[in-house]
Amino acid sequence: MRLTVLALLLTLAGVAPAAAQISYGAKVGVNFADVSFDADEDVPTSGRTGLLAGVFVTIPLGWLTVQPEAIYTVKGTSLDIGGVTSDYIVDYVEVPVLARLRLLRNAYVVAGPSMAFRLRARNRIAFGGSTEEFDLEDDVESFDMGIVGGVGLEAGRWVVDARYTHGLSDLDTDSSDDVRMRNRVFSVSAGIRF
User: What is the pTM of this model?
Assistant: First the structure.
């Protein structure tokens, strides 16, 4: 019994400093998004910019830190076919769970999986001086899995990072064709720890 109590006290003594190091923060930034089309014909895309905003937690686990996040993010692409501009826009709540490894005193790298849950999908078409918007929720998968890699810098409570998210899921709900659509997003954000 004494050994169990002693082991518990030693465990709590080791966890307390780590818990004191847990930090929370908020971030905002911009996505430079595109969608890759694996299809028989070339699909001319030019990418588009979108907002990202969310919160993060850093949890030190010895030499490694785990950083789960919850981010509102806007992805998609722009197409210009025959003088008609079409913006494919998808809003997500994205949940990356990143391993964070310190390189230098203020620099780190991150990598890990990211799960994105679709909030809204739409197509905005501009032609003849007017703009029409169409709902695409039945055409775009509700879940997107991706892999994230990036770098970051810390300065006191401030954090700046740049990362790339490589989508693994086919976004097209139509499985009868050979078209595969995947998100490709480069993001830059700035945040503050509380």
Answer: 0.84
